[in-house]
Amino acid sequence: MSIKENYNEIKSRLPENVELVAVSKxxxxxAIQEVYDLGQKVFGENKVQELSEKQPLLxxxxxxxxxxxxxxxxxxxxxEFIDTIQSADSEKLLNxxxxxxxxxxxxxxxxxxxxxxxxxxxxxxxxxxxKILFEKFTNGEFPNINITGLMGMATFTDDxxxxxxxxxxxxxxxxxxxxxxxxxxxxxxxxxxxxIAIECGANSVRVGSAIFGKRDYSK
Length: 219
Ligand SMILES: *Cc1c(COP(=O)(O)O)cnc(C)c1O
Prior knowledge:
The chain is α/β, with parallel strands linked by helices and 219 residues long. Helix content is 38%, strand content 18%. It has an 8-stranded parallel beta sheet with strand order 7-6-5-4-3-2-1-8.
């Protein structure tokens, strides 16, 4: 199927209230432009260098989301234009984002990335760490950041029960935090598991290969 067919197919499967972040990592600007021309405005990249190379070549009204692990020393390269950092996973990083956003007189939207997968390798905060950071935020720390939600990735497995269980943990935390301070975004679900994520309460999904095709890491 073509990118256009893929995109329309994914869009047709998303309820009205669910935001699509088109994950364009490893794909060329021409492919991103093609999806943009179909009406997509929100794109996700996971590497600072790749994002800073592509961003100047593409329309300025694209809302860029960073979805990959972010080192503190790289925040400065994206602080001027990034719409949302979905992968905030430490207090040190929040402090740095806050500082760099201040230099541009802007507020950067941030999602706290929470570790919900049983797999070892995944980045993210523990539930208790996320609660503490969120409380600091609601108490006025990080004035140049707006924590608008949570992001999580489920274990890479065929076991649907397990995936459901992990997504539900994040949904519970979302509801919990939402009592003290209104949150907008629950980002969970990728090409293989976004329908489950939506059933579990996601209102934002990050879909890459189901739109752009398989990624080629050999280049
Ligand atoms: C690559 C990536 C995605 C998209 O993955 P697909 O399986 O291609 O849809 C979503 N979220 C994160 C954090 C990613 O790194």
